Amino acid sequence: MLTPVLVYGIPLDFILFGLTLLGVAIFHHHTLAVALTGLAAIVAYKLLFAGFAKFGAGLPGLVHHMEHEWVTLANLFLLLMGFALLSRHFEESRIPDEMPTLLPDDWKGGLLLLVIVFVLSAFLDNIAAALIGGTVARHVFRSRVHIGYLAAIVAASNAGGAGSVVGDTTTTMMWIDGVSPLTVVEAYVAAAVAMLVFAVPASLQQHRFSPIVKDAPSDLKIDWARVAIVAAILLAALTANVSANLKFPALLDVLPVLGLAVWAAILLTALLRRPDWSVMPETFKGTLFLLALVTAASMMPVEKLPVASWQTALGLGFVSAVFDNIPLTALALKQGGYDWGFLAYAVGFGGSMVWFGSSAGVAISNMYPEAKSVGKWVTQGWPIIVAYVVGFFVMLALLGWHPDAPH
């Protein structure tokens, strides 16, 4: 019988995972190697000593565990790879070059762009919203985008999806589990306050670093075929998400529906315009990094959370910055007793505090490799941490903590 190893009462699994995250923070030029090494160490330990909780010991336990996780991992892989191609279609449509004529010339232009990302994320996947924001930023700021502003783009996409059951994987999970969309929408109270707190400092920061361009190219010609392709891909994702949740929820447990819909649209529209496949190798590295961390997190012996309370929900937001929020949300749904609006905000927005804390952060970091530094992300994106706490307590003061009845 396998016996888990404890170090001063702490399971060795957590220590190995913590060392992996520390390695990512320190060796930010070698994040993929660190993540894969950490995952290999955790898998080896689980095989030899601890087993895989409810899935059993040894190789059969590992196989059953991966059977349980593969849909989540496949969806993340397909979405990150697919939306990278979408962002290139959007860039080559020349619409980002047109944006200087639509955005104000000063710091308010950067602020309006963050608001646009926030609104888009309420309807689209937050990865797509973040990549669209990052693509526009690269053009309107002459490719000189401050890391603090990149963090704000990620935060805006996560905040925009926090109150929408189609805007984030975690809120979609709540919807599938029976939580009312009207309960989740309360998260926008905190998300809107958080936006006010971090968006202005981030926009001023970016304006000082590299002001917005004042004029679009005079000979600009929009490629409307690429615009149509972007719209088709996003519509496919939205339609698949809503229809699967409403009519075929069981399908979501056995197939990566959202990712497959995105790639079906990409391949079909390739007949109209060829995707820029050259972005795939670098995107693959970033995607593999996130999948390694998500897989490692899924193996942690988190069988239950502390007693449901607003303090626990607040803490889960900070945990979400370094620990995948999907298993955290699944545990919270199983446990019950939460005010789901608070939890949606915490696990949705909390991942913005570190670059690998959300899939949107990893997607932006694939586009801007200089953002793959925990130190720079935290020190230059500090308004996000402040915004998270302020938004949470404003929501608590205005709405109060009201645990929802079993759903």
From TrEMBL:
Keywords in alphabetical order: Antiport, Ion transport, Membrane, Sodium, Sodium transport, Transmembrane, Transmembrane helix, Transport
UniProt topology in membrane: Multi-pass membrane protein
Pfam family, one: CitMHS
Span of domain Citrate transporter-like: 30-332
GO cellular component: membrane
Compartments where located: Membrane
InterPro entries (UniProt xref): Cit_transptr-like_dom, NhaD-like
GO terms assigned for molecular function: antiporter activity
Any one GO BP annotation for this protein: sodium ion transport
Transmembrane segments: 5-26, 32-49, 70-90, 110-135, 147-167, 187-204, 224-244, 250-272, 284-302, 314-333, 340-362, 382-401
Claim: Nucleus is one of the keywords in the record: no
Family label: Belongs to the NhaD Na(+)/H(+) (TC 2.A.62) antiporter family.
Annotated protein name in UniProt: Citrate transporter-like domain-containing protein
